[in-house]
Write a structure and sequence with these properties.
The protein folds into two domains: 41-143 and 270-330, D-Maltodextrin-Binding Protein, domain 2 (3-Layer(aba) Sandwich), CATH 3.40.190.10; 145-268 and 340-352, D-Maltodextrin-Binding Protein, domain 2 (3-Layer(aba) Sandwich), CATH 3.40.190. The protein has helices spanning 4-7, 12-35, 54-68, 79-89, 103-111, 121-126, 183-196, 198-212, 220-228, 239-248, 284-295, 297-307, 338-352; strands at residues 45-50, 71-76, 97-100, 115-116, 139-151, 175-178, 216-217, 234-238, 254-257, 269-278, 310-311. The chain is α/β, with parallel strands linked by helices. It is 44% helix and 16% strand.
Length: 355
């Protein structure tokens, strides 16, 4: 069969109209491609595996996107699950960065060879060395402290001064705690073990188990809510959960103890949220831009204002509602030790029978 379109030339006027139509269509398609966000190239995107709640970290990432045009795809899960996933995926992983709420998980990722160092004066100036890996393969971004939250109608100020007090018999059935799988609990107990030894830590955990009874929670926000409602008198939580609760419900009968500040006390137990660039990422340049933004005063202010966390940049102030950082001391255990302490801590928690 003979195809007319293959062999019969169009009249010149029709050909001109066809050419003009094609050119016009090309302009329209090009304009649509330039304005459509769905067509942003892979080079202008970053994929972040996040061990943090999306509602807490997304506004910070949105500010970075507004500044740079680089879009961020988030995959959220538990920090331990994400580290294990990255190990399994290897160089095939789509992730460019890992952000978590626990220095121990970041250090485990480092020792597994998942990160590449982030070097440069911007990072060195912004984040003090005690909040970074020794080789800068992960960078701390914000600080959180393990505190005692109490109901002011049930507990008097000064009645409790130490985390260890929560194991005292007087608090039987009056204490709320995280569940045994909580990275916050594991990190906190690791610092206690490193500070006072297993011989003193084990009976503390036994007393804590007995005093908590069934008041064991999956989420720290639930602990603060239980204390606010008077379901229990006290609870263990990261500090910002109480301040976020008070921001939403200013009349809640809540207060905190920044514990273990007396002479001989271990100091307040600190952990950090942090981030690392994955070794295999083909977008390391843009990934570094994100890390630098999060460590900069602009990024640090967002952590302080939106999330009620302590900024790590020495020139950025915490939210005025928080306990002044200079007014209390932190435990002396290096954050990098949380990884090596984790497994024996988990074993001790299981041995004691914390739920």
């Amino acid at each position: 069969m003979r195809h007319v379109a293959d062999h019969s030339p169009l009249p010149s006027s029709a050909g001109q109209r066809l050419i003009m139509s094609c050119l016009l269509l090309g302009f329209v398609l090009t304009a649509a491609w330039l304005t459509c966000p769905e067509t942003v190239s892979a080079a202008d995107k970053l994929t972040v595996y996040s061990g943090r709640a999306e509602r807490l970290i997304k506004p910070v990432f949105d500010a970075f996107t507004a500044k740079t045009g680089i879009q961020i795809d988030l995959l959220s899960s538990g920090a331990t699950e994400l580290v294990n996933r990255l190990k399994l995926e290897g160089d095939r992983s789509p992730a460019d960065l890992l952000i978590t709420n626990d220095a121990g998980s970041l250090e485990l990722a480092r020792t597994a060879g998942l990160f590449r160092p982030v070097n440069g004066p911007e990072i060195d100036h912004a984040i003090p060395p005690q909040f970074r890996a020794a080789d800068n393969s992960w960078i701390g971004l914000s600080g959180r402290f393990w505190v005692i939250v109490y109901n002011t109608t049930m507990v008097k100020a000064g009645q409790v001064t130490s985390i260890l007090d929560l194991a005292n018999p007087e608090w039987k059935d009056k204490v709320a705690v995280p569940n045994a799988g909580s990275e916050y609990l594991q990190a906190g107990v690791s610092v206690i073990r490193a500070s006072i030894g297993d011989e003193r830590t084990k009976p503390f955990l036994q007393g804590l188990r007995d005093n908590a009874g069934t008041q064991v929670y999956q989420k720290t926000s639930q602990i603060v809510e239980a204390v606010a409602k008077g379901q229990v008198a006290l609870g263990v939580a990261n500090h910002y959960y109480m301040y976020r609760h008070l921001a939403a419900q200013p009349a809640a009968p809540l207060a905190i103890v920044m514990p273990d500040q007396e002479d001989g006390g271990i100091g307040a137990i600190m952990n950090v949220a942090g981030i690392g660039i994955l070794r295999h990422s083909p977008r390391a340049g843009n990934a570094k831009l994100l890390v630098e933004f999060l460590a900069s005063p602009a990024g640090q202010k967002l952590f302080a204002e939106l999330d009620k966390e302590y900024p790590l940049h020495p020139e950025v102030k915490a939210d005025s509602a928080l306990v002044e950082r200079k007014s209390f001391r932190a435990a002396a255990i290096p954050l990098t030790k949380l990884a090596e302490l984790r497994e024996p801590t988990i074993q001790l928690i299981e041995q004691v029978g914390l739920r």
